Every structure is written in structure tokens, then in C-alpha cells.
Amino acid sequence: MRTWVVTPTFNERENIDALVGRLLSLDAQVSLVVVDDASPDGTGARVAELARENPRVVLLSRGGKAGLASAYREGFRLALASGAERVVQMDADLSHNPDDVPRLLAADADLVLGSRYVPGGGVRNWPLYRQVLSRGGSAYARTLLGLAVRDLTGGFKAWRAEALRAVLEGPVASNGYVFQAETTLRAARLGLRILEVPIVFTEREGGVSKMSGAIAIEAAWKVPRLRWS
Questions:
Q1: How many domains in the chain?
Q2: Any idea of the CA torsion for 174, 158, 31, 61, to the nearest 10 degrees?
Q3: Alpha carbon 31 to its chain's center
Q4: What angle do CA 96, 93, 188 make, to 5 degrees?
Q5: What pTM, to 2 d.p., does this model score?
Q6: N or C of the chain: less Cβ packing under 10 Å?
Q7: Residue pair 34/58 in contact by the 8 Å Cβ criterion
Q8: How far apart are CA 204 and CA 92, in angstroms?
Q9: At 192, which CATH number?
């Protein structure tokens, strides 16, 4: 089964070698597309070196920060055009454990969510305020959108190719972290089978988190718009 992993990057030089090495060691049919938004720390240059060493690594280099959703959309389209049967999306900072990828791929669903908030899932090395913000955000989105999914804000997902194509057919309204909730909502509205499998999300050890209060505020007012979109 040909699997492509899509990960957006901005200043992930400290983590990219470990991520690439661990993903490519999982299976010979796993390939990786890194969508880099002109990282000042040289992430893109390092991925270019890795791509020259291994054809299973592809760099999609963009001129600057253009948003998480557009990074994923461009990466998804490249993966699908390259013959992917399954597409995995994940963070580049190792907060999503590459060793969990086979479990997501083994689950029988159109969309498999790596979930922090089902039995067996959790977070590690987060301060209390981050846990409250994340759990509260997921509950808020779940209630407004009328979905049973427990972890709507997580970004660790495995898609069947035909399901992802269907989700990408229409315009995407969000371009930030709300994209995660929007694509899951669209999958549910299309009648796709969605399954959550437990993961433990571990706070990054290298680099700087992109999460901020502004992102949380943006999500608070954009999620209600998704309900009527």
C-alpha cells in the first residue's frame, strides 16, 4: 500500500532529520513530502539535501508563510498525483510519534484520527493551561458542529486516497488550525467512516511551538461559521 506522509514545516531544522529517518524506516512504501514555508533556520535546505539522498523524500518549497491549510492542500495534491493510496498528515516536531503511523494505517476507516481524548490517549509535558485550552477547544467545536469526534483539533490523521479527494473537491473556508476541524466535518457530511485511535501527544523538545493565544481566538470565531458553511 503506497503511503505518503505530508508535513508542513517552518523552522523545524532541529527535528527534521529524526522525523525523516523514523518515517522512512517504517516501510519501503512510505514516502514523505515536506511543505516548507521558507524557514529561516534552513529546514528547507536540509530537506533538499535529504531528497537528493533518497527519492522517497520530496521538498515542496514555498516563498513564505502562506497558512497551514494551504500547505496541507498543496502537499495532499502532490501526494495524490504521485499515486498515494493512503495519505497521512502529521506535525514535523515529533509531537506526533512516527511509530504510531502503522496503527493509523491499520484501522478500517476512510479517515483515521490519532486522538488524544479517547481511552488510552493523552498528552505529555503540557502545562495545565494548554490541556484546558485543547480539551475545551475540542469540546467547543464538537458541540457547535454536532460531531461525535472527541479530538477535533488534532492534526494527526490518515486518509484513504478516495476519501481525501472527495474532501478536497470543494473550497476550504479556513487557512489556519481550524482547517483540522473543517476537513473532519466535511468528511462526516460526506458520510465517510471516521475512526479515532488513541495516541499520546508529546510536547516538542526542539524548536518553538507555533501555538498562540491569537490562534485560539481565531478558532473561537471561525468554528461557528463552519456549521453554516
A1: 1
A2: 10
A3: 15
A4: 45
A5: 0.90
A6: N
A7: yes
A8: 10
A9: 3.90.550.10
